[in-house]
Amino acid sequence: MNGIISYGAYIPYNRLKRKRIGEFFGKPAMGGEKAIAGYDEDSVSMGVEAAMDCLQEMNPDQIDTVYFATTSSPYREKGSIPTLAAALNLRDSVRGMETAASLRSGTAAIMAAKPGEHTLVIAGDCRTGAPTGQNEQWFGDGAAAFLIGSGPDVIANMIDYTSVQGEVISHWRSQSDLFTQSWEERLSSSAFMKQVKESVSPFLEKNDRSIGTISKVIISGPTTRAHLQAAQALGFSNQQVQNPLFDNVGLTGNAHAPMMLVSALEEANPGDQLLVVSFAEGLDLLLLEVTDAISRLGKRKGVQGYLSIKNDEVLYSDYLKWREIINTEPPRRPSTDRPSAPALHRGYQQNLGFIGSKCIKCGTAQFPKQRVCVQCQSKDEMEDYRFVGQSAKVTTFTLDYLAASPAPPMIVAVIDFDQGGRIICEVTDCHPKEIEIGMEVEMTFRRLFEAGGISNYFWKARPIRRKEGV
Amino acid sequence: MFKMSRKGISDKVAVIGMGCTRFAEHWDKSVEDLLVEAAYEAFSDAGIEPTDVEAAWLGTMISGYAGITLSGPLKTQYIPVTRVENMCATGSEAFRNACYAVASGAYDIVLAIGVEKLKDSGYSGLTRPNPPSDGTAPNISAPASFSFLAPAYFKKYGLTPEQGREVLSRIAWKNHYNGSLNPKAQYRSEVSMEKISKSPLVAAPLGVFDCSGVADGAAAAIIVRTEDAHKYRKDPMYVKALTIAAGPGDGRLRQDFDFTSIKENVAAAQAAYREAGIKNPRQEISMAEVHDCFTPTELVIYEDLGFSERGQGWKDVLNGVFELGGELPVNPDGGLKSFGHPIGASGLRMLYEMYLQFQGRAGKRQIENPKIGLTHNLGGTPMQCVSFISIVGKELS
């Protein structure tokens, strides 16, 4: 059986305090805050960030298959696997599949990993609830990623998994719906509890485990309290129940159970038994056993790290604009042209993988790729050079109030990489008062804009924000 | 860096007539109206008939395509008309090509004219259609790309943000003051230092008053060979040097480009001084019109063109060196800042001021007995641009 070799997560920098929604509508609100994708983020860009957190310095060539689970794909028709593969510098021959629609598609993808292979599972979601509704307050955005495989590096062995199919209309979004709809929650709650009671104990018995031997139960259910109700009904103590992150992230769609699993792994010790119960029109059950290798896993941001890296001063009106829920006065600038598909096709490796060129003659790194070296003018003496992960600093900058941006002023900086090379690009997740010459930045994968239905992905710089010890 | 034939353009051609519309928000005038006004003022000034012109060069960046943009309004009779474009240096490029054509002997009398109609677009600032692309370059505004210069310059030379603000405001204040003396300028009133310093931000640290005026307008010149000039007038303006430097994009790609200098400016200036035989520009040049698209551009230009030592330009600004009564007046007509910047016309507008000053026709802003003038016109961004310089003179060398 396979197991988890590595994990990673991503929580967007921007957090919306739920009381701001309540204040806007003059209604009571749930407490806490929800993570919201910035105007330049979506499930694909968040998925890339989570996967980068998961893979760290690992050789991407070892990955045989990539699964991307989301219910909020940027396209109804056109895949995102090649986008992810190019951004993560995976090999061209990597197999890939998107698992969509079901909120269980994240756990389904983990179960689908083939034995004897390295599978990268990425789950990311960015769902929108209609204003004033409970879903709007409850939902949050985020992503998680796992490298699945076998061998001595496995940090958590997959002991067993199973599924239960049980049709119920609980949460749904049609092809034309902008917002997730939901039925009276007593229906989904009742269906969920019945499925849990019938399936969990037999699953544990089959694997010679009992409620008492499980270190953490990771439950993603159909309501804000379903995890507690299910745990209680099964006989779990509160200490065994994994925090569902509702207070500080929200319900992150099919990334919810995977993000909770990352959280559990961050605190797990060798020998811990982890049970995942993931609901959506039925259940996925996963049983994992943590190994000694977890103590050797390198540092990463993960859920814990990203939780502390945040801007929780986002206004509800910003959220409404970024999600295009309200129409605002267009800037007195021409609208953004859709990108040229031939130009995108020619440059996808460069632009998505952030791969420039380095002159073989003089060693100067350059982005974008050049035929003739800017330093020594040698022609066609270039080798590919990937800038991702390299340290960099701000050389100069501007706050552009005139440029069309969903969050003016657009911060644009001249970024010089410590190992050579320069790019002029947007700076994101940054307050205008923060930017200064010499600021340390790192590159982050973003959706620059959507025009003509085409999502244009590229890299931006963001301030390096370190949590202590991460 | 910059190679050029021994045989330059110096003293080979002369300007014998010029015209310039007022630069303004001309809601009531079309591209055709502006072209006709500027061209006929130049014809009349030169004392020639429209039919005397043997060839024309039209500079416009976004207001029309091909030579027919000019031949239609003027009803020129099947003479060659070439439309040229070199971004904000478009007007200068039209002039440059026309000068070389006359110098070659192919034509005896030609027209160089530039026009732009910016206010018909409905957008803020300069906008232009972009070629299809992958869309990954940040879509920043023109002021933003030039505002990169300000923090880099302040940091390198140890100016506080407040000191830097004062220097930039002083440049805008000077150009507005000069423009207040010019009946053809877009903005003809003085603006206080305080108002400039507190203007709404456009591209921080630049505010509205750090930006050139968005205007419509046209300007024109009639050019002949030097030996023919006195047939038309006793006080023609002689061309001493014409250079243009197109950059490889060092600012985008090379870390040694530090945003306190625009290399294209330096290359164009060095070549122009060589062509005109100028050894000490600050002493030998009587006046200059430079491309003050945004205030920090003018600051950097002082140093790039050798008017100020490196790192000293800001002190010269505060000491009034470049003001009308100063050692080397820069932008006596108000510059792009207050005269306005209709892209294709600006380069010729700069030459128009040199021409008026040499002939003693500059009214309240007349500089005393100028001999040598310089115009500098830049198209693009600090990271990569074309930089044009002309040296013009009242007398033959």
TrEMBL record, chain A:
This is Hydroxymethylglutaryl-CoA synthase family protein. Residues 354-379 form the ChsH2 rubredoxin-like zinc ribbon domain. One of its GO terms (molecular function) is acyltransferase activity. The keyword Transferase applies. It comes from the Bacteria. Pfam families: ACP_syn_III_C, OB_ChsH2_C, zf-ChsH2. The keyword Heme does not apply. Residues 387-446 form the ChsH2 C-terminal OB-fold domain. Residues 204-283 form the Beta-ketoacyl-[acyl-carrier-protein] synthase III C-terminal domain. Keywords: Transferase. InterPro entries: ACP_syn_III_C, ChsH2_C, ChsH2_Znr, NA-bd_OB-fold, Thioester_dehydratase-like, Thiolase-like.
